[in-house]
Amino acid sequence: MSTITDDTAARIAAGLTQKSDQVVQWVDPNTVKVHPMNARRDLGNLEKLTASVRELGVIEPCTTALFDGDDEPCLIFGHRRRGAAIAAERLLPVIFRPDLDGNTAGQLLEQLAENENREDLALTELGQAYQRLFDLGVTSGVIAVATGREAEEITAMATVGKSDAAVALTERYELTLEQAVAVAEFDDDREAIKALTVAAKSGSTWQFEHLVATLRRDREDQAQVESLLEKLRSEETTILDASPSAPAMLLGDLTTDKDKKITPATHRKCPGHAAFIEATLNGRRIVYVCTDPKANGHKVPRAAARTQAAKAAKPAKKQAEETQARRDLMANNKAMDIATPVRRKFVAELLKRRAKVVGLAEYVVSSFVMHTRQFVDPDEAVWEELTDKKPVEVWWYWQDTVGGAVLENRRTDFDWLMAGLSLVCAGREKTWHKNTWRNADPGDAAYLRFLESVGYELAEVELLLCTTAEAE
Questions:
Q1: Which of 132, 166, 227, 455 is the least buried, fewest Cβ under 10 Å from its Cβ?
Q2: How far is it, in rounded angstroms, from Cα 91 to Cα 84?
Q3: Which residues contact 134 (CB under 8 A, 6 or more apart)?
Q4: How would you label 45-84 residue by residue, b for 16+ Cβ within 10 Å and e otherwise?
Q5: With left for phi above 0 and alpha for psi between -120 and 50, is residue 358 left, alpha or beta?
Q6: If 0-12 CB within 10 Å is exposed, 13-18 middle and 19+ buried, where does residue 448 land?
Q7: Which residues are CB-contacts of 289 (< 8 A; sequence separation ≥ 6)?
């Protein structure tokens, strides 16, 4: 474990670990070893620095110390100066730090503290450096003290640093930290990484968001399926891939030979006991069946028999159409449910804008003219989520209201219009649900088209809503 304390980290951050009486030596830069765990992998463009070194030499000495197990000093920081000195064919001033000999964690912290105040390290370089420190037992709190970064941000960067896929995509497509963390989340899923690569390559921020949200939901669904399968395995129940065809029937449609209901518990010893996982509008569930009710002595009540006969008599084409329609319904409901948090995230960012929003006045005024009731009393929870503000008391209600917050501290016409937009968005989101795509309401379509016009990228199901409403 690391012996680096918060106090030591604070001294590193303040530069108090370096002594003013250290002796400077001038050496050939080609003889100075590069630190094997140097945080900076790319020295960047050295043209200007090389020109300066060629004319004036290296002004600030580099720092060296013994790496763990080595008997020759290596650079702790000063790699860019070394590169420029080599290119300019000038000697390199160095100082030796015996207090850092063999202290890998201390050396890395010194590097990070030095570079936080110089030319920025890449996100991936920082992430890999933080992960190395984690591996050495240094906590995010200690690193935070030394570097001045938040511990949560350090942990997120380290997550990126230990993912080969996240590092590669971030460096190639300049992903944000949030996007890079999302890639790292799916580092073990080859197909997900392929899809994320395509999304990153497109440069489409909100399509990337939609994809990440979809991948997360798919993973949650798969986890639910695995949990249900594990339950069936523990019961030693025969597991079917899908709903079986006749003569199999659901247990709920059967009775015993004495007309008593059959439950999964009472049916467990039956030779025909089996089950499958069914997708429903509200997730997955286990459906128990008997694979051969007649052979196993079960009775089929008249109502269930009529239902089974009607289903069997239905043309295969009709059955296939109904099955597909149900699949589409579930898929679009799920897609809308996934899209909503992404859309709300965009709206929350939109409401914080201070620059001109094209079409703002037209959309806000037309919304109030056509749908006034919807925005008079918007859902407070939704409004708070979108604006990150709290209701304020107003004298005519003597209680906290969204209206009070909207009227507070409005100084410009733009402020008033954005306040109006917050009510419109909260009103729209208040009535939004996973079935909204089926209603094809022109007002909902106009809302989505406005968001699209100011930078949002519609999910496929949102586009379906718009095209359906606009065609009517």
A1: 227
A2: 10
A3: 140, 158
A4: ebeebbeebeeeebeebbbbbbbeeeeebbbbbbbbbbbb
A5: beta
A6: buried
A7: 240, 243, 244, 248, 249, 250, 251, 272, 274, 275, 276
Contact call for residues 422 and 390 (beta carbons, < 8 A): no
Dist CA 255 CA 365 (whole Å):
63
Give the strand pairing for 238-239 and 273-280: parallel
Compute CA distances 25 → 54, 110, 213, 465, whole Å: 19, 20, 56, 72
In this prediction, residue 336 carries a pLDDT of 97
Q: Do the beta carbons of residue 212 and residue 176 sit within 8 Å?
A: no
Type of residue numbered 236: E
Helix (H) or strand (E) holding 63: strand 62-66
Contact partners, residue 263, CB within 8 Å, separation at least 6: 251
> What pLDDT digit, counting tens, does each position of 250-295 carry?
999 999 988 899 999 999 999 999 999 999 988 899 999 999 999 9
Separation in Å, CA 154 to CA 115, 147, 262, 300, 340: 15, 10, 57, 63, 29
| Ranges of H-type helices in 253-401 | 264-267, 302-313, 316-350, 360-370, 372-376, 380-387
Q: How far is it, in rounded angstroms, from Cα 257 to Cα 249?
A: 15
Give the distance from CA 257 to its chain's centroid.
Answer: 55
Integer Cα distance of 322 and 47 in angstroms: 68
The H or E element containing residue 273 is: strand 273-280
Per-residue pLDDT averaged across 167-195, rounded? 95
| Tokens (6 digits) for 94 | 């160095």
∠ Cα 170 459 364 (to 5°) = 110
379-408 confidence digits (pLDDT tens)? 778 888 888 888 776 544 444 566 666 666
Structure tokens at 468: 């359906």
Query: What is the 8-class DSSP label of residue 432?
Result: -
Name the residue among 151, 159, 76 with its Cα closest to residue 123: 159
Decide if 275 contacts 286 (C-beta within 8 A): yes
What per-residue confidence (pLDDT) applies to 39?
77
Question: Distance between CA atoms of 332 and 338, rounded to whole angstroms?
Answer: 10
CA atoms within 13 A on the CB side of 88: 22
118/9 Cα distance (integer angstroms): 18
| Buried b / exposed e along 33-43 (16+ C-beta atoms within 10 A) | eebebbbbeee
